[in-house]
Structure formats: C-alpha cells, structure tokens
Design brief:
By secondary structure, the protein is an alpha/beta fold. The protein has 10 helices and 13 strands. The longest helix is centred in the last third of the chain and has 28 residues. The protein is globular, with a radius of gyration of 20 Å. The C terminus is likely disordered.
Amino acid sequence: MPLPLSATIITLNEEDNLERTLQALHFVDDIVIVDSGSTDRTLEIAKKYNTRVFHRPFDNYASQKNFAISHIKNDWVIALDADEVVSPGLKEEILSIFNNPNLLQSNEGYLIPRLTWYLGKWIKFGGFYPNYQIRLFQKSKGKFGGGIVHEKVFLQNQPKKLKHPLYHFSYHNLSDHLSFIDRYSSLFAEEEFRKGTYSSIPWAFAKGAFKSFYMYFVRFGFLDGKQGFVLAVLGFYYNFLKYLKLYEKRQNLSIPPFLVMVDPVHDVKRDETTQKDRDQIHI
C-alpha cells in the first residue's frame, strides 16, 4: 500500500529523465508535477503514472517548487528534481520512518545524500558526495528559498541525516555539462551583479584555479580516476567563467550610451533572455 507521502517534481523538457524518476516513486500515493512549457514527451510520460500536472510559467526555482508543494495532498513531501531517483535503499529507509510514528512526530525533515553518475561512474570524491540535500520534510515546516542559482529548503530545526542516497543523473554527456556551465555561470553573474560584487580577470583565474585544486587534491577527486580529472578541469572552467562573466557585466556599465544606441548588433535584452533560459539541472 502506498505511503501517505507526496512527491513533487518541476519539469521543462525532461523526457530523458522523468520516467526513470517516476518509476522509483511507486511507493508514494501522490505525485505533483509542475511544468513550465515542455515541448517534448515530458507530459506524455507524466500521464502514464499517478501524477497530477500543473502548468506554470517559470520565474525561479524556489517559487516553482513552493507552488508544487502548495498542491500536495499529504503533510510529508519528497521534493525531487527530474534527474534525481530514489535508490532502493533510500526507499526502504523512508518506509521504516513512516512505520515509526515517533520519528514522524519528532522530526521536521531529513537530509539525503546524493550520488552523482558521470561518464559511466558513480562519483564519490571531489566534493560530489555525500552532498546532503533536504528532500524529505513536512509541508508545514519547510519552504524553499535562496538566490537565483541554488535554492534550498529551510526548516526551523536541524534535520536528521539518512544513510542511503538519491541517485543523481546530472548530465547526459559532456555537451550537456558545458551547456549547464554556460547557463549557470550567467545566472551566478547576474545574481552577484545585483549584489554589487566586483570581479577581474586575475580574480576569475584565481577562483577557477583554487576550485580545481580543491576538488582534485583537497577533496581527493583524483581517486575518481579520469572522471575526477575531467570534473576538476571543468570545475576550473565553471568558476573562471562565473567571475569572468561578472567582470564582463561590470565592464558593460562603462560603455558610453551613444555606442549602445548606434550599435546595430547590440542586444539590449540579452540579460532578460539569459534569465529565462533555464532548466532543472542541478550540480
């Protein structure tokens, strides 16, 4: 018999991920999907399972996920991204919690480790694991918040940790990873620009170099073999690009207004477009 537990997923063109995620949620009795305009098979896949689909234009991740939670039927929710899958061990752990009323009454939520699949291997070092995320919590006690880039659940009290992981299928291939880096570095630059943060080319290089060193040596990324090396290199690129784009945004402030007016290829809406060009992929 399914648990009195709801699941929420926000989607935008997730045909490659969604079925795998929904198949692992057979033990819950309520699944809410909030879609922001999918044009692939996402909605067709959703109809095959016990889901309730809502349509909402995307504004930001936190509000999209809070909207999904507002429509669940149960007090407890497991809030997933479309590329996250409940592992068999995690399912059993959740079942044991719901079989113990004292655990449900005494805890507001749970931190779940996340195990990422990358280039044919589960990544256990470099800062990628355990990468605890609050995913299981009481609707009345938790809410998503945070900035443009990385939203998170806020609870009043400290959540407990679970042992078994969510499987995380972040990137389909290297091109997908590079697309993620481009999108999220733009979002980061926009967020920091709004805060008044400054950057420079040397600072961007320093931030990238430190991140790569930290991932590969301090967090033992080299133990993940060639995948760990690739991730460290792309960790440099991601952080270098974040701060380089922030520098670029600051430099654009100094362009004389008449140059913007007469430049026929200047796109004055490029930041607006960047804001809207997002998906549900999380590192």
